[in-house]
Structures are given as structure tokens and as C-alpha cells.
Amino acid sequence: MKHISLSYKIFTCFAYAFIAAIMLITLMVFMHIIAIALSAAGPAGANIVGLVPIDFTTESIRQAIGDPMIHRTFFNSLGRLFLGVAFNIVMMISVAYPLSKDNSRFPMRNFYAMIVLITMLFSGGLVPLYLWIKQLNLLDTVWSLVLPNGVPVFLCIVLMNFFKQIPADIEDAAYIDGASHFTTMVMIDIPLAKPAFATVTLFAIINHWNSWFDGLIYMKSPSLYPYATYLRMLIERMDRIQSIEDIENLINIGQRPLMMAYVIIGIIPIAVVYPFLQKHVKSGLMLGGVKG
């Protein structure tokens, strides 16, 4: 039996304790958000709500769900999510698969890999990007939110490194049987890369769902905002009273409970998707980070 050193045992205990502490803090924050959303305006405004609601009420949840803009922006985000993630996957495969081959199979591999990696360090800037989107007449369209984020380089590297783990003998056998590169990719590499696809898909979903700044730049009407952008607009609106309705909400519901209600609604999609993908995320990240 292999001997385990004392230092390794101490490090393992420390690692588990650290992870448990992070999990506990995250859970407490989430419980605090729910407690504020389900508390009355007085206790929430006085900042005395902890992990349990005070003067339990669901008025803030009902108010948030009844907001007509929340339905429009929520579906805007869902549309961006499905279109953006699908586009991301196609582009990531197109980049990661050829770059996963060595120089003997792809002679220009190092050159193209350098170009891809440079985009992680440098960008053209916000103003040129906006002018480019405007020149293409993509303002106020979902494509202005999808195309600039079409090739997430970090996720391409994860997928590329996973493709590298697939034995070359399997592909050689397919080539001998007459399969093309495209057939080999579709029939062999992609089915074997399910853990990696679960990983990059989850990260792509989170990136699209949480992104708010691009919606603020490229969308002129609030009805076209994704949900995260609308949530950011609500934060600014609640910081300054603009109408009688704002005063009534502040008195009857409270600013903090209403804000937390919107936050909870925004968390729901990620909370629904994550359990179905999380079992693949660990193996996808480990195998995708073995070598570059």
C-alpha cells in the first residue's frame, strides 16, 4: 500500500476545509437574498434581516413577476441564450478541432494558434466594435449580442485540449476506412467529447445570461434589453425616485426586497441548467487542461 505523507494529509484537510467554507459562504449569501426578498419593507430597509425572513410576505415576488418588462426581457435573454450558445458551439468546434492536430497534420497550426491566443490579450476596443456593429446595421438586433462573443477563446482552448486526448489511432482507423476529416470529427471526436461540451456549454450559458453591458450599448429601447441589462437599469432606477409608482413601491414593498426578487428570478435559469451539466464539468475541465 502506497504511503501517504503527513504533509499531504494536512494539505488535503486544508483543501476540504477551504472548499467547505466557500460552499457555506455561498449558501449563506443565497439564503440572505431569499430572506430579504420574503421580508417586509421595514426590516429589510433597516438591514436587520439575516438568513430568515422577518414579517414574511411574498409581495415583492408578486410585484416582480407582474412586471410586464420582466417577461419581455426574460424571453429576450432566452432567445439570445439559445442562439448564442448554438453559435458558440459551432465556432468553437471550427476553431478547436483543427488546432488540436499536430504540425504534421495541420502545417499552419502554430501560426493560427498564435492568432487565436493574441485575441485573449488584445482587442480592437469598444468604439471600433460599436462602429463595426453599427456599420453592419446590427444595432437593436440579437446578432449584436451574439456575433462579438462568437468565439470564446478560453473555451476553445479547453475543447482543443480535450480533442488532443483522443488517441490518433482511432482517427487513423477511420481514415483507412475512407472517412473524411469532417466525418471523423462528427462521428468520432464530437461524441467522445461530451464532458468537454458540457463544460464549455455551461460556461457559454453563464456568459450570455450574465452579460449586461453589451445590451446597454447596442440596444436603444429597454424592451429589447436582455434580462441582465434590465436588472442593471432597475438598480439605477431604484437609486433615484422618478415617479409616484416608485414611491408606492418603496413604501409598500421596499427597495431591497423588490431588488432581491428580481435577482432570484435571474438566478432560476442557471439553477435549472447546472444540475444537468455539473457531473460532466469536473472531468471536462481536468481533461481539457492537461496540455496546451
Structural class: mainly alpha
Predict the CATH topology: MetI-like fold
Count up the helices: 15
- Average pLDDT, all residues: 81
Annotated CATH homologous superfamily: MetI-like
Q: How many domains in all?
A: 1
End-to-end gap? 34 Å
The appropriate CATH architecture is Orthogonal Bundle
Uncertain ranges: 288-292
**CATH class, please?**
Mainly Alpha
Order of helices and strands: HHHHHHHHHHHHHHH
Concise account of the structure shown:
74% of the residues lie in helices and 0% in strands.
Q: Can you characterise this structure?
A:
It is a single chain. The protein has 292 residues and is mainly α. It has a single domain (58-288), classed as MetI-like fold (Orthogonal Bundle), CATH 1.10.3720.10. 74% of the residues lie in helices and 0% in strands. It has helices at 6-37, 41-45, 59-65, 68-99, 109-121, 126-135, 143-146, 153-165, 168-176, 181-192, 194-210, 213-218, 227-239, 244-252, 255-288. Helix 8 runs parallel beside helix 15.
